[in-house]
Amino acid sequence: MCGRFSLTVPPEEIREFLGFPEQPNFPPRYNIAPTQPIAVVMRGADGRHFTLMRWGLWPSWVKDPKDFPTLINARGESVAVKPAFRAAMRRRRCLIPADGFYEWQASGKGQKIPHLIRRPDGGPFAFAGLWETWLGAAGEEIDTATIVTTTANEKLKPLHARMPVVVAPEDFARWLDADANPPDAVADIIRPAQGDFFEAFPISTRVNSVANDDPDIQAPLAEAATPPVEPRKKPPARKKKSDDDQMTLL
Questions:
Q1: Which domains occur in the chain, in start order?
Q2: Is 2 a catalytic residue?
Q3: Which alpha helices (DSSP H) does the chain contain, by range?
Q4: Contacts from 10-15 at CB under 8 Å and sequence distance 24+?
Q5: Catalytic (active site) residue 94
Q6: What is the dihedral of CA 166, 167, 169, 173, to 10 degrees?
Q7: 103, 154, 199, 230: the active-site residue
Q8: Sign of dihedral through CA atoms 218, 219, 222, 228?
Q9: pTM to 2 decimals?
Q10: Of residues 2, 22, 154, 223, which has the active-site annotation?
Q11: What is the pLDDT of residues 181-207, one digit of tens each?
Q12: How far is it, in rounded angstroms, from Cα 116 to Cα 104?
């Protein structure tokens, strides 16, 4: 599962990491949410290219998106056969750059505790993605994308049963080249990340609101949540002790 993520590293670093010619100029995003534009790298006839797409895939056959769910994730186990994803899995695979994502853990007190999941060095990585172009009746075209997921590794299972698929740099070309690599040739890429690839720690519940999109939401919980200082209460008036009280105390 991946319902929020971040991309805060400089565009130049993403360009070098994923190897595309464009020089994008996007601001750091700390709280990317469904239906918002996301960075996507796709393969064209002349190589890799950077673009922006709507997060939440709409298959080309959808007539009215208002009546269709927001497909922000696609289960890797069935992505090659599900009607919503199989065409994209065969022809339109992509990479979605990120440097962190969020999961919420039940605390037993009613409120779930958000966690930031990232590489220990804070560097970028790439989700396995799929994309489609939706064509509206009025002639509008909207490029949409989804993140492929798999079972969580042992480190992340306490937070959620699933995690996004992370494509290793040596597999970038194979994942993107759908013409040369049909779905069964890239099935091995759809696997959990190694146990030490990510670190995870609790953060402030400020991340729950999409309006909060700043570095403070990624601070570890001890730093992000400073308890309010309560005013000092006056000590209760001491009751005058009787002789009997003194005898009891002695």
A1: 5-222 (3.90.1680.10)
A2: yes
A3: 11-18, 86-91, 172-176, 221-224, 243-249
A4: 13/124, 14/39, 14/50, 14/97, 14/124, 15/50
A5: no
A6: -160
A7: 103
A8: negative
A9: 0.87
A10: 2
A11: 999 999 999 999 999 999 999 999 999
A12: 9
